[in-house]
Design goal:
By secondary structure, the protein is an alpha/beta fold. α1 runs parallel beside α9 (about 345-360) and α4 (about 130-150) packs antiparallel against α5. β22 and β23 form a beta hairpin. It is globular, with a radius of gyration of 23 Å. The protein binds flavin-adenine dinucleotide. Flavin-adenine dinucleotide binds near residues 11 and 171.
Amino acid sequence: MKRILILGGGFAGVECCLKLESYFGNNSDIEITMVSEDNFILFTPMLPQVASGTIETRHIVTPIRTLINKTKFYEAKIKHIDPHGKSVTLYGTNENRGMILHYDFLIVALGSKTNFFGMKNVEENSYQMNTINDAIILRNRIIDLLEQAENETDPILRKALLRIVIVGGGFAGVETAGELNDFIADVAEYYPNITETDVKVTLIEASTEILAGFPVKLAGFAKEKLVERGIELILDAGVTSFDGKEVLLQSKSPSNKILLSDSSQQKGHSQLVSLDSIPSRTLVWTAGVTPIDLIKESLFETHKGRIVVNEFLQVPQFPEVFAIGDCSTFDPKLTMKPFPPTAQIAEAHAKIAAKNLKELLNGRSMLKFDYTWKGQSAIIGKRTGIASFFGINVAGFLAFLMWRNLYLSKIRTYDKKFRVWLDWTLELFFKRDISRLKIITKNGNSRTELDEVDDVR
Ligand SMILES: Cc1cc2nc3c(=O)[nH]c(=O)nc-3n(C[C@H](O)[C@H](O)[C@H](O)COP(=O)(O)OP(=O)(O)OC[C@H]3O[C@@H](n4cnc5c(N)ncnc54)[C@H](O)[C@@H]3O)c2cc1C
């Protein structure tokens, strides 16, 4: 009996698990186990649409148990990986004991978390866009601040409440800015004291362009569309602090000025201005990811916090361990082309790791990882987007439709695909819901550690 243990039920972990099941489904000598903190796979590209209420919360998550057949699943948080003892320790909870799971082969697919670059007050006071909870919390926040601003009589406070700052000009930041801006415009009619000009959504990016990785022309189109829809764009500026009331900025340019584009300027133009603070009560931080602490503090060799792997996705010191997805990186000494942390790459890693594990078990030679970039697309608010596939660039409504079709096809079950499609269709006929649901857990959601552990073999 060989035991394969997969850590993480995200894009990489689930894809790898399903591939392994397809290889070893009928082989009783192979045992597959997966551990993940959540019992579902989250479809992150649609998170901004959950925050804006376009898609219902549960429609972008798929329970892992509905996807697997042979795999044993543990919903648990991983505490420690011991590659020498070939074991993984799971936290205990208030209700059950911790456990130690033993493996012969390990797949580490633990993803990443938001990177605050060490800015503690930004971490404490800002909203994130990484988990389903983040999207629910942000949606509640936006509705709450509209409710507060509607009846606020202090004009300074009111202005700060209605200023939403989003940091990070990548997929997550641009899509979140577009979605929140549309959401506020659509629900404004319920708030008679709030006019369109009272609300300001600001997107801040540290470099001079948004959506790095897209052709410059497409990124330029996205920029123009955002500004046309009333979003203020600040480029070449880094956020250095946020105390919950004021966002502090620092220019990245020697001129000490930032690039500002808003709807008051001529189309496609921006101006150099001096700006070092923005009064706002809501900062959404989407400016980068970093591996979780468990990985950074593990016994594996890491580079910029990610587990270093060889061209076969194996950890060189522990050949029975594969690391895939956002938590891994190729050994910088290898002349491999760099790949960004995306779902596309995570799934490609997963396929190769599963195949290599099969070859390893059969004593055959493994495949080197390589990937031909298929392209990418992003939506920039209502019915517009940009897409670049196999060298063909598309912008506008067609790109928006391409985005929807592509991502709908990527959702794993027909049930969830249909629900998302229905949400999009119903949105054409009905107004948005502004109910703010309080999310309170009975006993909090902390996992406490118990001394006793259950040794599962
Ligand atoms: C808002 C947003 C939009 C995005 N849009 C796109 C897009 O359009 N296209 C694209 O290609 N990519 C996109 N991405 C990036 C994409 O989501 C990631 O690259 C992808 O999720 C990486 O897959 P992964 O399997 O490595 O990690 P994840 O999918 O993050 O999975 C990690 C898994 O590990 C589990 N886990 C973590 N820590 C523990 C622990 N201690 N114990 C137990 N389990 C644990 C998590 O619960 C999770 O199930 C987007 C990301 C975000 C946040």
